[in-house]
Amino acid sequence: MCGITGWIDFGRDLRAASAAIASMTATMSCRGPDAEGTWIGPHAALGHRRLAVIDLENGTQPMLDDPDRDPTAVITYSGEVYNFQELRDELAARGHRFRTRSDTEVVLRGYLEWGEGLPERLVGMFAFAVWDNRDQRLLLVRDRLGVKPLYYYPTPRGVLFGSEPKAILAHPEARAQLGTTGLQELMTWVNTPGQAIFEGMRSVLPGHVLRFDRTSTSETAYWRLPATAHHDDRATTVETVRRLLRRAVAGQTVADVPLCSLLSGGLDSSTVTAYAAEALAERGEGPLRSFAVGFSRPGIPGQDPAEDASFAAKLAATVGTAHETITLNAADLTDPAARLAVLRARDLPLGLADMDTSLYLLFRTVRRHSTVALSGEGADELFGGYPWFHDHGATTADTFPWMHHSAPIDVSGPSFLDPDLPRRLALDDYRADRYAEAVREVPALDGENELDARMRRVSHLFLTRFMPMLLERKDRMSMAVGLEVRVPFCDHRLVEYVFNVPWSTKSFDGREKSLLRAAVAGTVPGFVLDRRKTPYPAIVDPAYDQAMRQKLGDLMADSNAPVRPLMEQSSARAAYALVEQAEPSQLQFLRLGFESLLRINDWMREYRVELL
């Protein structure tokens, strides 16, 4: 896993402008702590920071097809291609010769052999850029599910790109500006594919190839979620899911560095951990290391965040992992250095309050022992694990299911921002337009009954709008400490199959994730299969909320706070009075709102954001 960046400019000779690409590359030292490289041609400058996972001694980038002459193509690549060995063998049979054992060289040689037909052959998570010297053309490519990020920023004479916005913003032509669309995205959390919040910046769409040359820019989808008829009976479906999932996990345990699993003791992480331990044992390797997060202060009975730690420890003992629980407290989560690290990692004020900080601190500790971690992200969206899937009102509502029966997740919290802002920004219309847009993307299947068509739509919304928020969060928090997190549930072959399984089969016994439970029964123990679903734990400690209340008070007293232009004073004072008078149990429910305000303010200050 790595960080990539680059600058294409058809109006100047970039060989005289090396400082800019060096600055852009340096911003991603956390994503790639092991090596740094740049390549500069007349109109293309590529940068790379490497986290060495495969072929540690070689595989440095940017990589040229022939380092001894003017290259045909140059690549800067981030990610993992899990079928690279099979592709390498096929390319070798076609006459290609390899200098390294890295998947990067396989991708580069694959481009020379198959051109833009390459991405559909790749199995994995990846984002890469190829500069084709023959055609003076840049290709930006992103994996099917958007596991790895890739941003771009068109300029009058070319384009800037990077794994993270910070790489682009390090260039003197890029500006950290927030316009109407950026505000609409921040205040609705609809997570429109391609939007990047910063004015003028975009994100490469998952499953897409973007081309830039001297005269044009074009975009092509090489993959979309397909709608296909499902003919397998339940027993065959269960067995197929078991086979696909076991293959996905086993394929992602290959690494030349220490590997571990992130284990909450829930169904998803336990499945990944059990299959990973099994794969290592079959190769005579192991034991697998596993890590859980817990909090030093117990919570409310029945909502104790320590529950995850106890289930994780029990699962670890059952499957034989070398397990460790990382215990955090309020002081850890309120530490200014940790909170700033989270903000800089995200580049944006989006987030989940203390849960982002605890995830970052978990990853920071895990990185001391492992370079690669396996995670259960994606199972809830794929198999129907969230309560919304089982709420008829949510699945039939004329909006995103996760916005039903509650106010949409909103940075304004308890009315800290100008109450007229939603009207001026037309937030209701924006949300409705984005929902209609998302529904139009859902593939239709002829002859499908109303229930299955409705649940196909719900599943598509979660996979294309909700899951990307969580994948981006995990990528940023992990790469901020140089940890590669792999997500087997996002293997596109598994996703394609399960997406097309009828809802009656996915939920055949009336429980969430019925199909997944059936597929892993016999591998995952009963105490996990029978456990009720619990979300990622939030800290339950009055000391934390009191510290955040103090930070909010400091903001309210700061007349120069960058977020002030978005606030209406009387409403903000009334909202602050609500927080100031709230009981500790009430503060937990207000937390996301006022912490969002704090984060927006910190973000605007740290990034010197200009309001347009």
TrEMBL record:
InterPro entries: Asn_synth_AEB, Asn_synthase, ASN_synthetase/amidase, AsnB_N, GATase_2_dom, Ntn_hydrolases_N, Rossmann-like_a/b/a_fold. CDD domains: Asn_synthase_B_C, AsnB. Pfam families: Asn_synthase, GATase_7. Pathway: Amino-acid biosynthesis; L-asparagine biosynthesis; L-asparagine from L-aspartate (L-Gln route): step 1/1. The keyword Magnesium does not apply. L-glutamine binds at D103. Its EC number is 6.3.5.4. GO terms for biological process: asparagine biosynthetic process. The keyword Transcription does not apply. Keywords: Amino-acid biosynthesis, Asparagine biosynthesis, ATP-binding, Glutamine amidotransferase, Nucleotide-binding. The record marks E377 as: Important for beta-aspartyl-AMP intermediate formation. GO terms for molecular function: asparagine synthase (glutamine-hydrolyzing) activity; ATP binding. ATP binds at L262, V293, S375, G376. PROSITE patterns: GATASE_TYPE_2 (PS51278). It catalyses: L-aspartate + L-glutamine + ATP + H2O = L-asparagine + L-glutamate + AMP + diphosphate + H(+). Residues 2-215 form the Glutamine amidotransferase type-2 domain. The active site is at C2. GO terms for cellular component: cytosol. Belongs to the asparagine synthetase family. PANTHER family: ASPARAGINE SYNTHETASE (PTHR43284:SF1), ASPARAGINE SYNTHETASE (GLUTAMINE-HYDROLYZING) (PTHR43284). NCBIfam families: asn_synth_AEB. This is asparagine synthase (glutamine-hydrolyzing). It comes from Micromonospora carbonacea.
